[in-house]
Structure formats: C-alpha cells, structure tokens
Amino acid sequence: MSLIQVTDSAAARIRTILEQDGKLETHGLRMKVVGGGCSGLQYQLSFDADAHENDSDLDCNGVRLLIDEKSALYLVGTKLDFLDTLQESGFKIENPNASNTCGCGQSFAA
Fold it and tell me: How far apart are CA 44 and CA 24, in angstroms?
C-alpha cells in the first residue's frame, strides 16, 4: 500500500496553483496532521519548498508531497482528490485510518 494516492484532478489542481504562484519547480504540497477540530485531529495542507529531517519527500502522480514522520502514521493509504461540482469544491481527503470524521470532513479521529 502506498503512503498517499493523488488523483489526476488533485494533481492537476496542485500544479495549477503552484504554476500561478511561479513555484511549480521549487515547491511541493505539505500534508500534515495536527491536533484540533471537533474530532480531535485535522488535516493541514500548505506549500513548502524544503523537506525537513525525517520528512517523506514523495512524487505522487507527478506532484511533490512532503509529509512529516508523525503525520505519515495517520496518512498511510490516504487518497487526496479535488472536486469541483455544484455541491462541493476543494480538496477531499479519504483516509482509511479515520475511525470517525466530523460533518465538514476537516477533522477526524484515529
């Protein structure tokens, strides 16, 4: 099982954002799990140029992902998707390790 799966639509959206900011060649998407949210843990997505010690520096579907060691424990097998429909728009994280999620989908328990 791979650490993270990035769908074609998520990869395209990440590349578009990085390209608009002139950072396509220098930055990657940092996925992080931090304490908080109504279910106890929440996802944090940001762009970062540097991999830190103990980071996983991955190429997933042509996109650079940076994941710290602690967050990787919670993200194994996770799928990152991007939706743009009439009902919802934005990144969607499907995490098989989540035992409970909140209604908004931004926080989870493991």
Answer: 20
For 59, phi then psi, to 5°, come to -110, 115
* 3-state secondary structure (DSSP) of residue 84: strand
Q: What 3-state class would DSSP assign to 8? A: helix
Domain boundaries, the chain: 4-109
The CATH-assigned architecture of domain 4-109 is Sandwich (2.60)
C-alpha 15/C-alpha 17 separation (Å) is 6
Q: What is the pLDDT of residues 59-105, one digit of tens each?
A: 999 999 999 999 999 999 999 999 999 888 999 999 998 877 766 65
- For 78-110, b/e burial (b = at least 16 CB within 10 A) is bebbbeeeeeeeebebebeebeebeeebebbee
CA distances (Å), 24 to each of 36, 65, 84, 94, in order?
30, 12, 22, 25
Two tokens, residue 100: 């409970």
